Amino acid sequence: MSTLKLKDGTELYYKDWGTGQPIVFHHGWPLSSDDWDAQMVFFQQQGFRVIAHDRRGHGRSAQTATGHEMETYASDVAQLAEALDLKNAIHVGHSTGGGEVIRYVNKYGKGRVAKAVLVSAVTPFMVQNAANPEGVPMQVFDDIRAQTATNRQQYFKDFSLPFYGYNREGANVKEGVRENWWRQGMMGSILAHYECIKAFSETDFTEDLSSVDIPVLVLHGEDDQIVPYKTTAVKAAQLLKKGTLITYPGFPHGMPTTEAATINKDILAFIKG
Predict the structure, then answer these.
(1) pTM greater than the 0.85 cutoff
(2) Is 224 an active-site residue?
(3) Mean pLDDT, residues 6-33 taken together
């Protein structure tokens, strides 16, 4: 098992397959690097070096008591990129991982990152407030917190339904996909999951988005029930200096799994473009 010991002693688990230009995948809450299975295999077969880590407190990484906020997440990625000597890398982030990507690129990525991809990402800012009246009400995140703290086992079972759009009429529900979501979630630390809710909902990525000068592809499903695309993807693309936005009618939040062929094709075209 490949792990990196970070500066604060945390053991960070990661996968590193193949050779070629590196693509680094950053997973969403409350999952692990396994959520990128369909991308890891595809891009490794396309001749890329593919890397994915389990965020601290998630998956197989150490269940730390501290560091469950975006600054530390980005610093952890920077240490991994330095340890693996990653250069000319593509960083791809889903949901919470999208925030992690843009914070890492802005703060640490100069000279190491060629392009970035934000998939169903929480950027620029999720929660509703005076400056973001179209955001998601805090009550929604308070409910996620309460359910995670007191009812995590069942809540994670239920959460996979809107995550993959399996609650829509006519959906092709795959129980194996739902069970794999639950498996990944339950591998992680309840404390990390609880505190990460604040990180993904209340971190403001406006400055990060407007500061980066590399090409960034923004992909988002128009039927995303977890991260509404009009308040995130559309605004993120407008803030980026070199942003490209693609939205998909009917695609859910978990589209890297349910719509892998489409997502992989569009990311590949962006990388090669």
Answers:
(1) yes
(2) yes
(3) 98
